[in-house]
Each structure stands twice: as structure tokens, then as C-alpha cells.
Specification:
Strand content: 25-35%
Number of helices: 19
Structural class: alpha+beta
Largest sheet: 7 strands, mixed
Strand order of the largest sheet: 3-5-1-12-9-10-11
Bound molecules: dioxothiomolybdenum(VI) ion
Length: about 750
């Protein structure tokens, strides 16, 4: 298939060559005359306060321009608290770098050293000494639970649909507790920032961010700057998975340092620092109690989730939401508790909440299928929700049934032997498992600027960033399809807050929001192009003043009369003939409030695992993921999203485990030698299937979201396959070999 012309199923990444040749620029790859380097010194205690600091040696070290601590940090307008903020509970106060001497977590920045080379800054940072008044940290969730001080408030209210804890009265019951540790995003690109101040009141920031607009606003607020004086540039991001939504303390520290020394400043974290300075997926312990009738109808689900946050920052996520919405169960009770620990704050991580929740729910669904002696897919079909059980609204679209069928066929599910331990390949025990995922789909607001140039090139601009899914590629494909213009003649420019504000990259919502604006801009351009034909000599003999977009076919940069394709003109000629320089449009698309519908993307994962009978070594040897994400805008990049999510799912189920030494509240394995993620050898060929049916409600292009749902339910599929292979129900991920022998 020629992928360079309009109408192909996909196009290759428009920025692929830049990425593989190294010309793509990431936040810390910008160079400026007089560039200086910032390095953070970190707290060695997890809880307490700094009673004294000795920065003399660091200040006198070669090449050092400044050492900033809470003792000399300039007063920032955004650090001033209103009396109301000052009296807010600790958990709502947040943590502001260098604002005071309080230590909230081990590794918290206590000083920024600015020097004329990176090496000199690293050395000087090692000379910063602090004396602490130390308190005993609590970083163990189990210990915090015993203390009984869970947070209170709305997010933690018990939610009851139907009758509370109705599972107890069912004929068939199961109860099980599932646990998972802290997991970190581990993007390939380490977080970093380059700041270039002009005086004290104007700054350009090269930042790794999923959210240009909120980064700009956070900087404006913290430093008391005007919008036109804060420009944020984020052209390329080497992965983020949720870690680049916040404007983290290291970024604010870099801005403080750059302003103080009056020189461009670059700050890049170390991999070590990445483990607790840019958020993580919180540890969670979840109990699922489930009751069903003998014929496999769910009677009640009770989902009780316990998770953690930092003492200075409340963080909640929809861990229990999937249990309320995935199945047509009349009685659902959910409880959610969060305990503050003396650790840095957690944040969103791929499929936030849902990924954690589905691990428990979909493991329990498998346990119940076993208890009922029902096929796990058949059990799910018997509880298929035709309308949203929580809101009672209709779905904008739902093709989960189709996904079950397509995935089951692909992996040959019907040949799976449900009896645990019954399938073997030599010394390997074989098991198959499934797990489903649900993730909310939405459409936010977006703005796109468009210019159709006299050479027929379309330039689109939006202040959005791309953490890897290929946003510019998908938008190029979409514009190509709607406007009938070859992808090679489209330039999608992004990653600059000077462009019309686009949506944040995240929540699996970028393509939905931005795609709506791009679609609308292209539809408007068709109208404008048709208007150009009013006085055009090729068209005017037959259709003077009357040619409308619907009379025309727009194809490969040409428009032609639908009734007579020989009456044809290129966009370029139409613009030139009309005596125009270009056609320029600014398009705004609004949030879709979805008053009458709810929208979700769905995934169903089927995996084959092999467990070595002597050593417990475990491999995922097949992974089939069938996804209903609406209409697929660009097949190739969409597939990559699901493959990436599955890699995350393999990591989550088999490897990832943040370990804290609770004596000191300190990370033990904050490096890639000890914190394991899946590598190529751990990942089989991932088979991705899209139902690929348009959602008629959410947005004009018919897409839903895809980035996160591919991870939701995957870990359960693996755990369920392990049960099928071995008869062992492992309710604690990661499932490492020691748990299987
Ligand atoms: Mo995603 S956790 O919205 O980057």
C-alpha cells in the first residue's frame, strides 16, 4: 500500500526520521551561550526539619555561581499563602521547593547548585551539608493502616448502588485481597528543563511536559508573571505515561536558579531522582467480595481499595470506578481509603486508577468463573452491560462483545483447557487467561490554527505536546482524510505555548479533542475553497455563484465537480486564481458535555503464559489485545499505543516493584539494575486487534481513547493465566518465580 497518498489506512510517523537521526530536540538538548547547569542536593532523611545548612564549601568550589536553599531563596509571589491557605490541613498545602525547612520525604531537594559545568555542579552539590532534626518516618502502608488515620472527605465516601454488600446473600461467593506495590513511570527520557530568562520578568522554558498550558500557568502563578512573558516549548518528549503533567519542584528550582544567576540554565534529574521526584503509581491493597447466582449472574460486588499518598499532597484516582461500570451488576458497593505516608507524592500513571482497579476486579472475575465452573468470557457475557449501570445513560458506543469475540478467535480460546495444570509443552506448564479493561473517553476543548498556502501546503498549529503516541502523525492523517490532501503536504506544528492552545496530552483524550478541531478546520477550509470557485472560469459556466462544498470532491489536493470530475482545480491554483496569499483560519472546538451518553473505550486481553515446572520462570509467550477505541485514526501509531501498554502490563504483572526501606523511608531499588521493567526479550509478538467502529457521538472523527485502556486489565489476564497453568492463585504482583515454586 502506498502510504504517501490520501486514503491509505495509515501513515508512518511524520517525525520518525527526526527521532532516529537525533535531530529531534528534547528539553535538555538546547544550547545557549553562557549556559549553566543546575544540580540538586537531596535530603538524607525522610521526615523532620533542617536545623542548619553549611553551603560554604559548595559556594567556594570551582565554577559555582550560586547555591540556593530555603535560607536564601528569593521570595516568590506564588509562595505567599492567604490566611485561608495557611490554615489548610497539611495534606492540602502542597510542597514548595526551598520555601521552608520542612522535610517531607527522603531525597527531597534541599539545595540547588548552579555551576558553569555539569561536573562542577555535581561536585559542589556533594559538598552541601545539612543538619537535621529527624523524626521517625512512616512509609509502610500496612503500618499506616494500623494507625487508622485515613484521609477523610468526598473522594472517600462509600458508594452504594442497589443494596450495600449484597454479595453476602448470593448463592456463590468469593472474597479475595489483591496487592500491588509502587510502580514508577520509567520513561526513557529523564525529566529535565532548560530555562532562559530575559531580565526578571520574562522567560522561555524548554520543558518536558504533557500540558503546555498548565505549565505556563503554573510558572506565571509561581513567579507572578504575565502570560505573554512565559513561553513554554516542548517539541519532543521521550515518554512520560503521566509523569509530565505536573510542574515538578525541580522545574521550579531551575527557574529560581536561572533567574538568580541571569544565565540560561539547564537541569536534568538523575535516573535515581526519577524514582521519587516525578510521581509514581501508588501502592494499593484491594479486597473484592463478589456474589453471583448459580447461573452466573452477578448479584453483588464490593470493592474496597486502600492506597497511599504523600503527607503534603492529597492524591486520589478512580481505583474502584471500573467495578461500578464494567458489568451489569445490580448491587455494587465501593470503599476507598487513602493513607498519607512520608514519601514523595504519587501521580497519574497510565490508566490511572483503572489499571490498579482492574487488576483486582478482573482477577476476582476469574476466581468467580472458576467457582461457577463457567468459561471466563461466557461469565462476562452473562453480565454484559447494555447501558451504563452507574449513570443509566446510553453508551455513545460499545463494541466490547465484538472485542471478546475477535480476541478469543485470534488466540483460539475455545481450545483452552480450563483445568489448571492440564496443559504442558515439555517442562513448561501452559496457561491461558483473560482480563478486560474500561477507560473513560471524553472530548475536551481545543484550538487549532490553519494556513493553506499557495503551494497547496497545509500548516496546522496547536499548543499540544506529544509524549510519544504520534499526535502530529494522527492529526496529519486525519487532516489528509478530511481535506483530501496528501499527508506529505501537511505540516503539523506543535509544542509551543505561542500556538493556539491545544488540549493536554493525557487522559487518552488528545486525539478526541484535537481531532475535533482539526476535523472542523478542514471542513471549514473546504467551504472556503468552494467559495473561491465563485468566479473561477473552469467552473463558472455551469455553476456561477452556486458551487457548494457538497457539489465537490476533494481529493489529493484537488477539488472537482462530483458530477463532472474533469472540472477540476488544485487548491494551490484556486488560491492563486483568487489572488490570495493563503487561506487562514483559527478553529476552536468545545468540550463535548455528553449530557445524554457515557463514553468508554474497552480492551480485552488474552495471554498465554509458560511457567517452568522446576524453576518457576514465567514468560508471557502470547498476547492478544482486542480493543474498541472507536474509529482508528491511524492504524500504525494506534497499534503502537496498545503494544506499549501491553509492555507496561507485562512489566506490571511480572517485574515492577518499588521497594522502600521503611527504617529510613528511603528507596532501595531506585535504579534500573534493581527495578526491573520488561525488555524486548520479555515481550512476545503483541497481536493487536481493533474493532474499528466509529463512535457516532463523541467527536466527528468517531474516535475514542486508546493510550491507557490497553494497559487496563492486562495484569489480571496474566495472573489468571498463571492460575490456569499452575493452579496457584497469586494475588500479589509482580508474579516473580519465587511465588511459583
Ligand atoms: Mo496519562 S496517566 O493521562 O499520561
Amino acid at each position: 500500500m502506498d502510504k504517501t497518498i490520501s486514503g491509505s489506512p495509515f501513515i508512518d510517523r511524520v517525525d520518525g526520521v527526526q527521532k532516529v537521526t537525533g535531530t529531534a530536540k528534547y528539553a535538555t538538548e538546547y544550547d545557549f551561550p553562557g549556559l549553566v547547569y543546575g544540580v540538586l542536593a537531596n535530603s538524607t532523611i525522610a521526615k523532620g526539619s533542617i536545623s542548619a545548612m553549611d553551603t560554604k564549601a559548595a559556594e567556594n568550589a570551582p565554577g559555582v555561581l550560586a547555591v540556593i536553599t530555603h535560607l536564601n531563596c528569593p521570595e516568590l509571589s506564588g509562595y505567599k499563602r492567604t490566611p485561608e491557605q495557611a490554615s489548610a490541613p497539611e495534606i492540602r498545602k502542597g510542597y514548595r521547593v526551598f520555601s521552608d525547612n520542612i522535610v517531607h520525604f527522603s531525597g527531597q531537594p534541599i539545595a540547588l547548585v548552579v555551576a558553569d559545568s555539569y561536573e562542577r555542579a555535581v561536585y559542589a552539590a556533594s559538598l552541601v551539608k545539612a543538619t537535621y532534626s529527624e523524626e521517625k518516618p512512616i512509609t509502610d502502608l500496612g503500618e499506616a493502616i494500623k494507625s487508622g488515620k485515613a484521609l477523610e472527605g468526598n473522594p472517600y465516601r462509600e458508594n452504594v448502588r442497589g443494596e450495600a454488600d449484597a454479595w453476602k446473600n448470593a448463592e456463590v461467593k468469593i472474597e479475595a485481597t489483591y496487592s500491588m506495590p509502587i510502580e514508577v513511570h520509567s520513561p526513557m527520557e529523564i525529566h529535565g528543563i532548560t530555562v532562559v530568562w530575559e531580565g526578571q520578568d520574562k522567560v522561555t522554558v524548554y520543558e518536558k511536559t504533557q500540558a503546555l498550558r498548565s505549565t505556563q500557568q503554573n510558572i506565571m502563578r509561581t513567579f507572578g508573571l504575565k502570560e505573554e512573558n512565559v513561553r513554554v516549548i516542548s517539541q519532543f518528549i521521550g515518554g512520560a505515561f503521566g509523569s509530565a503533567f505536573n510542574t515538578w519542584p525541580h522545574s521550579i528550582a531551575a527557574l529560581i536558579g536561572g533567574r538568580k544567576v541571569g544565565r540560561p540554565l539547564k537541569l536534568m534529574l538523575t535516573r535515581n531522582q526519577m524514582f521519587n521526584m516525578v510521581g509514581y503509581r501508588p501502592q494499593a491493597i484491594q479486597k473484592i467480595s463478589m456474589g453471583a447466582s448459580r447461573d452466573g449472574k452477578l448479584i453483588g460486588i464490593t470493592h474496597e481499595a486502600t492506597a497511599m499518598t504523600a503527607t503534603y499532597q492529597e492524591f486520589t484516582e478512580g481505583i474502584v470506578n471500573g467495578s461500578r461500570g464494567l458489568y451489569a451488576c445490580p448491587n455494587v458497593t465501593t470503599r476507598y481509603k487513602v493513607y498519607p505516608l512520608d514519601l514523595s507524592q504519587p501521580t497519574w500513571m497510565r490508566g490511572p486508577g483503572e489499571t490498579t482497579g482492574a487488576y483486582a476486579l478482573e482477577s476476582a472475575m476469574d476466581e468467580m468463573a472458576v467457582a461457577l465452573n463457567l468459561d471466563p468470557i461466557e461469565f462476562r457475557l452473562r453480565n454484559y452491560a447494555e447501558t451504563d449501570p452507574e449513570s443509566k445513560k446510553a453508551y455513545s458506543s460499545k463494541f466490547l462483545k465484538e472485542a471478546y469475540q475477535l480476541g478469543a478467535e485470534k488466540i483460539n480460546w475455545k481450545d483452552r483447557n480450563p483445568k489448571p495444570g492440564s496443559m504442558r509443552e515439555g517442562e513448561w506448564m501452559i496457561g491461558y487467561g483473560t482480563g478486560s479493561g474500561i477507560f473513560g473517553a471524553s472530548r475536551g476543548a481545543a484550538k487549532v490554527g490553519a494556513k493553506l498556502l499557495p503551494d497547496g501546503t497545509l500548516v496546522l498549529q496547536s499548543g499540544v505536546t506529544d509524549m510519544g503516541p504520534g499526535t502530529a502523525t494522527a492529526m496529519t492523517k486525519l487532516a489528509s482524510d478530511v481535506l483530501g490532501i496528501p499527508p506529505g503536504k501537511i505540516k503539523f506544528e506543535m509544542g509551543d505555548s505561542n500556538y493556539p492552545p491545544g488540549p493536554a496530552q493525557g487522559g487518552s483524550g488528545t486525539t478526541s479533542a484535537l481531532g475535533t478541531a482539526v476535523n472542523n478546520v478542514c471542513v471549514n477550509l473546504k467551504t472556503k475553497l468552494a467559495e473561491l470557485l465563485k468566479d473561477n472560469s473552469i467552473f463558472h459556466t455551469e455553476l456561477v455563484h452556486t458551487v457548494k462544498p457538497e457539489d465537490l470532491v476533494f481529493e489529493n489536493g484537488n477539488m472537482m465537480l462530483a458530477s463532472d470530475r474533469s472540472k477540476k482545480i488544485s487548491y494551490a491554483d484556486a488560491i492563486k486564481d483568487a489572488g490570495l496569499q493563503q487561506i487562514e483560519i483559527l478553529e476552536s472546538s468545545e468540550r463535548n458535555p455528553m449530557a445524554n451518553y457515557t463514553a468508554f473505550s474497552y480492551a480485552v486481553h488474552f495471554v498465554k503464559v509458560m511457567v517452568h515446572s522446576a524453576t518457576g520462570v514465567l514468560k508471557v509467550s502470547r498476547a492478544v489485545s482486542a480493543v474498541d477505541a472507536g474509529k482508528i485514526v491511524n492504524q500504525e501509531t494506534a497499534e503502537s499505543q496498545v503494544i506499549g501498554a501491553v509492555v507496561g502490563g507485562i512489566s506490571m504483572s511480572l517485574m515492577e516493584e518499588g521497594v522502600i526501606d521503611h527504617r529510613y523511608g528511603r528507596w532501595v531499588n531506585n535504579n534500573f539494575a534493581d527495578y526491573h521493567v520488561a525488555v524486548n526479550a520479555d515481550v512476545p509478538h503483541v497481536e493487536v486487534i481493533f474493532v474499528n467502529k466509529p463512535d457516532p457521538i463523541l467527536n466527528p472523527q468517531g474516535s475514542k481513547g486508546i493510550g491507557e485502556v490497553g494497559m487496563v486489565g492486562f495484569a489480571a489476564a496474566v495472573a489468571n493465566a498463571v492460575y490456569n497453568a499452575t493452579g496457584k492463585r497469586i494475588r500479589e504482583i509482580p508474579i516473580t518465580p519465587d511465588k511459583l515454586i
